[in-house]
TrEMBL record:
The chain crosses the membrane at residues 12-35, 197-218, 238-256, 286-303, 339-359, 365-387, 394-412, 424-447. PANTHER family: DNA INTERNALIZATION/COMPETENCE PROTEIN COMEC/REC2, RECOMBINATION PROTEIN 2. It is found in: Cell membrane. It is a multi-pass membrane protein. Pfam families: Competence. This is DNA internalization-related competence protein ComEC/Rec2. The keyword Transmembrane helix applies. InterPro entries: ComEC_N, Competence_ComEC/Rec2, Competence_DNA_uptake, RibonucZ/Hydroxyglut_hydro. Gene3D superfamilies: Ribonuclease Z/Hydroxyacylglutathione hydrolase-like (3.60.15.10). The keyword NAD does not apply. Residues 178-448 form the ComEC/Rec2-related protein domain.
Length: 717
């Protein structure tokens, strides 16, 4: 194959250029990965503590134990390399307050960073990789405070100043985000409203904001030179001077916004555009886009993992496609508005597949709102905020902002009065293959002289979808660390077994994992069963009830969760669902666990809670029908369970251990693994595979794993 590639490059010169580009790209990716994104060669043993010198980057809790993000400056017995210091998420127990900038020394137990991984859920491991968070750990012993680094730089002073001058306004979060790029002041509800209204992009410092700042610097310097009446030699190219001043203003704006990703990309694109322009080339076509994209990926090829890269460059590409033929400033107001509408419609259609793929929906009314919001924010509000922030250091002009704030807040409330059904359209099943098909069709529609050709990819996708066999029912074993959360679904109906753990008294997996999967798969929950009230099985109960699923507990828990579950049988169309318990005298909470057996289509699934060997023996002696195709191992694979008699009675083809990666108890226990191996039973663990999904068909079942299906080569263990 190598010889064939070289031969093609020798005979076809354009292919040789393309081949060189690919080789260069591969080398850049390898360089960045091993220098900036790979864990060092230092071998970390979680059972052994190490003396670590670290600096606190950010704190996430206000009391001990403090949960922090830290930069590891030095790890005992690990050599210091040339690469930047790696980051870690740490749990620190300390009597003294821990704040950003503290430089500490402590004995830490470290292990490589690893988070849960589920389908249809935010990938924390990938985000950690992009932030260079390579480890997680906890402190053991005393903490030594060395010093405190004060982050009183120009950037911090600027943020503090903007926060002060925009205080006492109803939309401070809006003004603060536009001027600093920091969205931390935006509440969850406002973020949700902005997304539904299609206005989230206005708060990201992007090409619109950078271009405006450049224009302010360009024309301000031009005006100052004119009013100053300075004599300038004709040999000096004043236009280049004005361009330089405008670019410097844009650079300062991006610096003060802490070089956030969207702002940096826009600045690079502006720089490429200006360089090409000053070289006498045609900048309003593809050179500036391609050069800017090349520079961005050369600086950080892992920016390809950020969805914002695709939204920003695709939006600029669409605008460039239409700019040459549609935008004519000499036209009247109505024709300009028609052109703006055309560009906005093109952006809506062009970005629609990306929005459906990444956000499972799109703003319905956003197309109309943006026709007003984009000029309002870009041409009026942002210049006004810049003027206000500059003048406020000399004069008290807070009254001006108060008037604008009242008007904008009134308009914002009017937008919120729009019914939810008009704001957001959801389309849950939008796969990557459908994303590719959509853009192939759009390209054919735009460039092909025969427009009907664009229907060919769509027809291929429809035929392929119709030929795919439909699963009879589905089992989802979610990755929740040390805990259990399972969903059985059939014909858009679902039964939930256990709700996983809760951490820090507030975090659970119901909202971020379970509800996302229910919405994505468009399921209706018929019943919920809690095996027992240990935190790792019922921690998400409060969130589940708050989400409106309180009534689903009534079938199996008519007398409340404090009592044993009701022994009953429930039919879910063709599925039979039977609940039962083991009759153990003086049973512990674990042995009171409610078991669930799902039977249908010649398959069966047995869910066992946390029963021990004593309960297993009682079930076998009572002659319970325990045979199952799939078994969720009792007590996460603890050695107190999974006895030989029980394994023989169930005789599963597959056993699934719901356990944490390198957890405190190191489940599944090696002896349990050995017992299942002696029966030649396939074993799977959520710690290793993440979310495990089993689809049952007429004559077979298929296993799907979150870690294998949604991982890149650099994320593999």
């Amino acid at each position: 194959m190598s010889f064939a590639v070289l031969l093609a490059g020798a005979y076809f010169k354009p292919f040789l250029t393309l081949l060189s580009g690919f080789i260069c790209a591969i080398l850049v990716v390898i360089f960045h990965y091993f220098i900036f994104y790979s864990i060092s060669d230092c071998q970390i043993d979680y059972q052994q503590s190490r003396l670590v010198l670290f600096e606190v980057v950010e704190t996430y809790s206000e009391q001990s134990p403090y949960y922090i993000k830290a930069s590891l400056k030095n790890i005992e017995s690990c050599s210091t390399g040339m690469r930047p210091a790696p980051n870690a998420m740490l749990s620190i127990t300390s009597d003294k307050p821990v704040t950003s900038g503290d430089k500490l020394s402590a004995e830490l137990k470290l292990k490589p960073y690893r988070s849960v991984k589920n389908f249809y859920s935010f990938d924390r491991e990938r985000q950690a990789l992009l932030e260079r968070v390579f480890y997680k750990g906890r402190s053991v012993g005393e903490i030594s405070y060395l010093n405190h680094h004060r982050y009183d730089s120009l950037r911090v002073s600027y943020h503090t100043y903007i926060e002060k001058v925009t205080a006492n306004t109803q939309l401070q979060w809006l003004y603060y985000a536009l001027l600093t790029g920091d969205k931390s002041k935006i509440s969850y509800e406002d973020r949700k409203h902005l997304r539904e209204l299609g206005l989230s992009h206005l708060l990201a410092i992007s090409g619109l904001h950078i271009g405006l700042i450049f224009a302010v610097g360009f024309y301000s310097s031009k005006w100052l030179l004119r009013v100053s009446h300075l004599r300038v030699r004709q040999s000096i190219q004043l236009n280049k001077l004005f361009v330089f001043v405008g670019f410097c203003c844009s650079f300062i704006y991006v610096y003060l916004s802490d070089f956030i990703v969207s702002a940096s990309r826009a600045l690079l694109m502006l720089g490429c555009y200006l360089v090409i322009y000053n070289l006498g080339k045609n900048p309003v076509r593809w050179r500036s886009i391609l050069y800017a994209l090349s520079v961005v990926l050369f600086i950080d090829p892992f920016a390809l993992l950020n969805p914002g890269l695709y939204f920003s460059f695709l939006a600029v590409t669409i605008i460039f496609l239409l700019t040459k033929n549609t935008v004519n400033l000499s036209l009247g107001f109505l024709k300009r508005f028609a052109q703006l509408l055309q560009v906005q419609c093109a952006l809506f259609v062009g970005l629609l597949p990306l929005s459906l793929y990444y956000f499972s929906g799109t703003s319905v009314i956003g197309l109309l709102i943006n026709l007003i919001a984009v000029p309002l924010v870009g041409l009026l509000l942002l210049p006004l905020l810049l003027f206000y922030s500059l003048v406020s250091s000399l004069l008290d002009v807070s009254g001006l902002l108060s008037i604008v704030d009242s008007a904008l807040y009134y308009g914002y409330q009017l937008l919120l009065s729009i019914p939810n059904g008009w704001r957001w359209f959801s389309l849950n099943e939008f796969s990557f293959s459908l994303l590719i098909i959509s853009y192939i069709s759009l390209l054919l529609l735009y460039f092909s002289p025969n427009k009907y050709v664009c229907l060919i990819p769509v027809c291929i996708y429809v035929v392929d979808s119709e030929l795919q066999p439909e699963a009879k029912f589905q089992l989802d074993v979610f990755d929740v660390g040390h805990g259990l959360m399972v969903m059985v679904s059939h014909k858009n109906k679902a039964i939930i077994y256990d709700l996983g753990p809760q951490y820090f008294g507030r975090y659970d997996y119901v909202r971020r994992v379970l509800l996302n999967n229910i919405i994505k798969q468009q399921l209706s929950v018929i019943a919920t069963i809690i095996s027992h009230l240990d935190n790792d099985h019922s921690g998400g109960l409060t969130s589940w009830q708050m989400a409106g699923f309180q009534d689903t507990l009534a079938i199996f828990h008519p007398q409340g969760l404090g009592n044993k579950c009701k022994t009953t049988t429930l039919k879910l169309d063709e599925l039979n669902i039977r609940s039962f318990t083991a009759k153990v005298e003086n049973a512990s909470r674990n042995d009171q666990s409610c078991l669930l057996k799902v039977t249908g289509f010649n398959y069966s699934v047995l869910l066992t809670g946390d029963i021990s060997a004593a309960a297993e023996t009682k079930l076998v002696e009572a002659g319970k029908d325990l045979r199952a195709t799939i078994l969720i191992s009792p007590h996460h694979g603890s050695n107190t369970s999974s006895s030989y008699k029980f394994i023989g009675a169930v005789n599963p083809e597959v056993v699934i251990h719901s356990s944490a990666y390198q957890g405190q108890w190191r489940f599944p226990h090696p002896e349990v693994v050995n017992r299942y191996n002696q029966h030649h039973i396939q074993q799977l663990s959520t710690a290793e595979y993440g979310h495990i999904r089993i689809k049952f068909y007429e004559d077979k079942y298929r296993l799907e794993f979150a870690r294998e299906q949604e991982s890149y080569w650099f994320e593999q263990d």
